[in-house]
Amino acid sequence: MTTIANLKAVLGSFFHTPTYGAFELLEHALVELDDAGTICRITRAGDADFEQRVAAARAAGAAEPGAYLELGANEVALPGFVDLHVHAPQWPQAGVALDEPLNVWLDERTFPLEARFADAEFAYAVGHDLARTFLSRGTTTVLYFASAHLDGSFAVSRACADAGQRAIVGKVVMDDPAANHDFYRDATPDQALADTETFLDRVAALDAARRADDPRFAGAFGAVTPRFIPSCTDEALAGLGEIARTRDAYIQSHCNEGEWEHSVAIERFGKTDAEALASFGLLGPKSIMAHCTFMSEGDTRLFAETGTVVAHCPISNAYFANSACPVRRMHEAGVHIGLGTDISGGFSPSMYDNIRQAVMASRMLEEGVDALVDATRRGAGYPARISAPEALYLATKGGAEALGLPTGSFEVGRAFDAQIIDTRRAFADLTGFGIFNEPADRLARILYLATPDNIRQVWCQGKLVIERA
Ligand SMILES: [Zn+2]
């Protein structure tokens, strides 16, 4: 695909959440980019040199088409989203069989589908379609589980790089013959560890080659990826912890997802899932754990102390987690949290849908859901609700901070990852008849009502990767 990559300045209005708990509107601001697609200067209307810098940016745009972008009166920019939990091979079954219990859904649907990534061409096709779909919904950075196959997993990394998306991908390890089907698992623990190292080397080489070619390459990273404790031998878990430590690599897995996963670790190790992961060296500031609904107070402390990140997957949790995630309680305890779609335990590739569900699930957790239970005992018994701007933070800067990547907000030093929202799209008008013009109301209308049609353009690392007619 062609990408426009000489953008130097954008004039318009920008919503973002530089800190948790509040949003900021940069109204009529000039955002300037360096050669690497990183924001190098922000000038706001009213600043002494504003008019002069805008004039210079316009002149540069006249001399070099594509260097200057001016948003329309009904347009506003939001940061590109960061999705912290996705299973790339499950994309073809998004929305399918969600009425099944987790073990049936995995054994009868998911594992046979993931096994098809033995065909690397198929893996590339699915990965590329998924990356483009995410980009079209405004998601510019994604942390992916690929499959248990070395070549199929690497095909996902290539597909994301070709689509212009910043991607962290893991070759999944699931080596325990007693816990996995023979048609879909690592042959041995040694093979699983060797393939993980080869995979990390290949992704690092891909990243280096693309960066050498393109100063605005958004980045390809590898992650050590034990599927979850129930599918791995002790030997593989310990080996993966060691690989992550020696390479300072990202780690991703599932932790305390539901009643079943929670109970497996306790029966096998006499410890919680979180404690067991820690004992294998799998928790730390570059560890991202999906779900984390069944967190004891000790588990939450362990996450805060080690800097481990929670990938909150609110839609998926409604189907498979047997509970709602106490996001606010964990945030207040000092745990880093971002948002994930969990394709395809979660059906929607849209972070907007997940922002909405994160807010709704938090309110149901706080107030309870069964009217036959007395109101004093119905809810969680502690403040649990989060606001839409707080959920936006999780979906943008929260996820970026969790990954240690400079994106997720419009600040100097951050990559220019942006979605340009057209608030006056036919059949998707977000302007509210001009009645609700306060910034908080304008942002609320976007977060709750935006459709993919409203996303006119998507930029990743200063490159145009999606443009709707
Ligand atoms: Zn998952």
Question: What this model shows, in words?
Answer:
- The chain is α/β, with parallel strands linked by helices.
- It folds into two domains: 9-79 and 409-467, Urease, subunit C, domain 1 (Roll), CATH 2.30.40; 81-403, Metal-dependent hydrolases (TIM Barrel, Alpha-Beta Barrel).
- Helices cover 40% and strands 22% of the residues.
- It has 15 helices and 18 strands.
- The chain has helices at residues 50-63, 102-114, 120-136, 150-163, 189-213, 234-247, 259-269, 273-279, 297-306, 314-320, 327-332, 351-367, 375-378, 388-403, 439-449, and strands spanning 9-19, 22-33, 39-44, 68-70, 75-79, 81-87, 139-145, 166-173, 220-226, 250-255, 287-291, 309-312, 336-339, 418-422, 424-425, 428-429, 455-460, 463-467.
- An eight-stranded parallel sheet has the order 6-7-8-9-10-11-12-13. A four-stranded mixed sheet has the order 3-2-1-4.
- Strand 15 (424-425) and strand 16 form a beta hairpin.
- Helix 5 (189-213) packs parallel to helix 6 and helix 12 crosses helix 14.
- The longest helix has 25 residues, at 189-213.
- The radius of gyration is 22 Å and the shape is globular.
- It starts with 8 loop residues before the first strand and ends with a strand.
- The mean pLDDT is 96.
- Bound molecules: zinc ion.
- The site of zinc ion (ZN) has 6 residues, from strand 6.
